Amino acid sequence: MNDQAWGLRELVAKKGIQNSKFITIASGKGGVGKTNFAVNFAYVMANEFQKKILLIDADIGMANIHLFLSTDPNKNMKNFFGGTKLEEVIQEAYGFDVLLGFSGIDELRDLDEISVQSVIYDLERVSQNYDYVVIDTSGGVDEKVMSFLRASSKSYIITTPEPTALTDAYALIRSIYNLYGYQNFKIIVNMCRTEEEGQGVFNKLKMTVKKFLGIDIELLGILPYTNNLPQAVRNKELVAMKYPKDLFTMSVKRICEIEAKIQQPPQDDEHFWQKIFDFMGK
Ligand SMILES: Nc1ncnc2c1ncn2[C@@H]1O[C@H](COP(=O)(O)OP(=O)(O)OP(=O)(O)O)[C@@H](O)[C@H]1O
Ligand SMILES: [Mg+2]
Fold first, then answer.
1. Ligand 1 close to Cβ of residue 33 (< 6 A)
2. CA 211, CA 215: separation in Å to the nearest integer?
3. Coil vs helix vs strand at 61
4. If DSSP codes are grouped into helix, strand and coil, which group holds residue 1?
5. Which 3 state secondary structure label does DSSP give 136?
6. From first to last of its 282 residues, what are the pLDDT tens digits of the chain?
7. Which residue out of 141, 229, 251 has the highest number of ligand 1 atoms within 8 Å of its CB and is therefore the one to mutate?
8. Which ligand sits nearest to residue 140's alpha carbon?
9. CA distances from 10 to 18, 38, 56, 197 (A)
10. Is the CB of 32 within 6 Å of ligand 1?
11. What are the chain's domains?
12. Is the CB of 140 within 6 Å of ligand 1?
């Protein structure tokens, strides 16, 4: 390893960040805006920050990214598990790549060890082509969401000011911290009426997490409620594309700016997918 790479590695170790390529987007409560954030984040990162993005729909219950993008829901991971090349099931949308239907992972139970290893190898290989792999999950705490969180170097936890969303966000953080010691949480407060409201919600969560778990969480961004978002969704458009000056779009851009500024450490092989499959007991 050369001096520069070594220096970077030291820096990263000090800051406690690992390879920041894999970002899992999760929430305690469903319906808080994960998928909308994910598609707009992917769009801005790709088109304004020239990052290569792979967005994965890991929503196990109701995979729905394809409802926001004009992608073909029948082209998905199931085809890949069935033998189609991974590159052929990845689709392009608005400047970034999309992999649908990770819910098909359950079918792997029927595959032998060699086939599972070749699936993992392909996922690791293809992930290397991207600056970021963004994983949109379903709300709640199930085994698969936990696995993605544990394997990711970074997780964006989304909540809204609604008390139940906040309680559930805390419950999610508590579970994964207590079970696995995982603590790379970055918080996004969505559907806020004012900046102050978002800040107040974050402060409450931060204090609770500090008091009961003894760890620090970080505020990544506050996103406003906007009528332009449901409007854009109805027309199968992205709010960031259709309304570039909307406050929601501007706030997503700020998050992208923060993310894009983080110096990427040397791309050590993280074995992300191997971890995912191990955690899921495949
Ligand atoms: N900032 C916002 N302003 C207005 N409406 C919003 C905002 N964010 C999300 N919504 C609306 O909230 C609803 C849920 O959004 P979304 O599907 O992105 O949530 P989710 O967390 O992915 O849900 P699930 O847990 O079911 O996957 C949608 O109808 C969406 O239009
Ligand atoms: Mg969703």
1. yes
2. 8
3. coil
4. coil
5. strand
6. 445 544 444 443 444 344 568 999 999 999 999 999 999 999 999 999 999 999 999 875 555 777 777 788 888 888 888 889 999 999 999 999 999 887 667 777 677 888 888 888 999 999 999 999 999 998 778 888 899 999 998 999 999 999 999 999 999 999 999 999 999 999 999 999 999 999 999 999 999 999 999 999 999 999 999 999 999 988 888 999 999 999 999 999 999 999 998 866 555 557 899 998 888 876
7. 229
8. 1
9. 11, 31, 31, 38
10. yes
11. 19-279 (3.40.50.300)
12. no
Q: Is 153 exposed, middle or buried (0-12, 13-18, 19+ CB in 10 A)?
A: middle
Nearest CA to ligand 1 atom 29: 230
Inter-residue contact 23 to 154 (CB < 8 Å): yes
Q: What is the CA(266)–ligand 1 centre distance, in A?
A: 35
Query: 211 by DSSP, 3-state: which?
Result: helix
Which ligand does the CA of 61 lie closest to?
A: 1
Judge whether 32 and 225 are in contact, CB under 8 Å.
no
Strands of the 218-224 sheet, one edge to the other: 91-93, 96-99, 53-58, 132-137, 22-26, 154-159, 185-192, 218-224
CA of 105 to the centre of ligand 1 (A): 25
Q: Which atom of ligand 1 is nearest to the CA of 223?
A: 1
Ligand 1 touching residue 161 (CB < 6 A): no
Q: Is 190 in the pocket of ligand 1 (CB under 6 A)?
A: yes
pTM of the model: 0.90
CA of 8 to the centre of ligand 2 (A): 35
